[in-house]
Amino acid sequence: MTQTQKILVTGATGTVGRQVVAELLARGHEVRALTRDAAKAAFPAGVEVVEGDLTAPDGLAPALEGVTGLHLITFGGAAFSPLETGPRILELVRAAGVRRVTVLHGGGPTPLEDAVRAGDGVDWTVLMPVEFMANALEWVDGIAASGEVREPFVARLSAMVHEGDIGAVAAVALTEEGHGGQAYVITGPEVLTVGDKVKTIAEAAGREIALVELTEEQAVEGWRAAGLPEDVIGFLLEAYGNTPEVGRTVAGTVEKVTGRPARTFAQWAAEHADAFRERS
Q1: SS3 for the chain, per residue?
Q2: What pLDDT shows up at residue 107?
Q3: Residue after which a domain boundary falls, among 112, 129, 146
Q4: 255 found inside a domain
Q5: Relative to the CA of 264, which of 29, 50, 53, 249 has its CA 20 to 30 Å away?
Q6: Does 174 fall in a domain?
Q7: What tens digit of pLDDT does each residue of 191-233 get?
Q8: In a domain, 254, yes or no
Q9: Can you tell me the mean pLDDT for 113-122?
């Protein structure tokens, strides 16, 4: 166990941010969580909640007082637009004496990540997770309605990662030496098809779940009906139809950084089995 430190977590209500908070608490550290609306935030006991917005960095100075580490996201504001405030945030970080910064990679180059990588005076670590296991929760409503998962490109491969393992890698990088200047690809311990995922969820939930493969045209029609923008649809077609090698290759980052194996999709499915069970 390292000496107790105080860490500021931005994006603390998000899928990964909540896991960073949980892992830091489990390791005995103090956590300050940044949110735009403290009244709507719910965190475990002991978390200090402060209001702030990464799009208005000058208001962050009080939140940075006394912290040794900072976890950043690359998007901000109500519209979740790419943050352009990285240089100013780094100025405040250095002025506050923050030693370590982690950045959750946004899927491609972003102004904030570029600013952090170019910044002097802090040990930065970029977290580059592949597909989240939590993405499978998008199937809950379809399974409840028809007992089916309807997806295109069902043979596609994914080394999907438990969101808790992203939080664990972040917690170590924020509180221990030796991770500065690193860009960590974070994966699970196995490569799975969509069929593998559906079978695993069915076993965990104790029910039958059918997998229906959609054509590309059917998938696009459904995404448009759901209101997805055309650029998002294009991203999904590329990611699913031509998954890059990094997204379908197991990396040993979780075990290397945390000292324990990455969690499997079966473990994730068991944790979330109630969401997929038949409803009375």
Answers
A1: CCCCCEEEECCCCCHHHHHHHHHHHHCCCEEEEEECCHHHCCCCCCCEEEECCCCCHHHHHHHHCCCCEEEECCEECCCCEECCCHHHHHHHHHHHCCCEEEEECCCCCCHHHHHHHHCCCCEEEEEEECCEHHHHHHHHHHHHHHCEEEEECCCCCECCECHHHHHHHHHHHHHCCCCCCEEEEECCCCCECHHHHHHHHHHHHCCCCEEEEECHHHHHHHHHHCCCCHHHHHHHHHHHHCCCHHHHCCCCHHHHHHCCCCCCHHHHHHHCHHHHCCCC
A2: 85
A3: 129
A4: no
A5: 29
A6: no
A7: 999 999 999 999 999 999 999 999 999 999 999 999 999 999 9
A8: no
A9: 91
